[in-house]
Design brief:
75 residues; single chain; two-stranded antiparallel sheet; two-stranded antiparallel ribbon; alpha+beta; elongated
Length: 75
């Protein structure tokens, strides 16, 4: 997974974080792989996220625009 931390003050990338995730089996005390049903659930979740991303991105954009309009109006 990769994440970016953005500087609002300087309007640029402040940091970039990379995370490695490992599946660990505590009964055998070593790394393992996901079971097929787990992979299937992750794939379903990812598909649902992609399907809803556009809808909620648009809603967030509208909320930000409304807040900015109010900020300008009442400054």
């Amino acid at each position: 997974m990769e994440a970016w931390i953005l500087s609002e003050q300087y309007r640029r990338l402040a940091a970039r974080c990379i995370d490695d995730t490992a599946i660990y089996d505590y009964t055998t005390a070593k790394k393992t792989v996901l079971k097929p049903f787990m992979v299937e659930k992750f794939q379903q979740t990812f598909s649902m996220q992609q399907a809803n991303q556009k809808k909620y991105t648009e809603q967030a954009k509208q909320a930000i625009e409304a807040a900015e309009e109010l900020q300008i109006k009442y400054k």
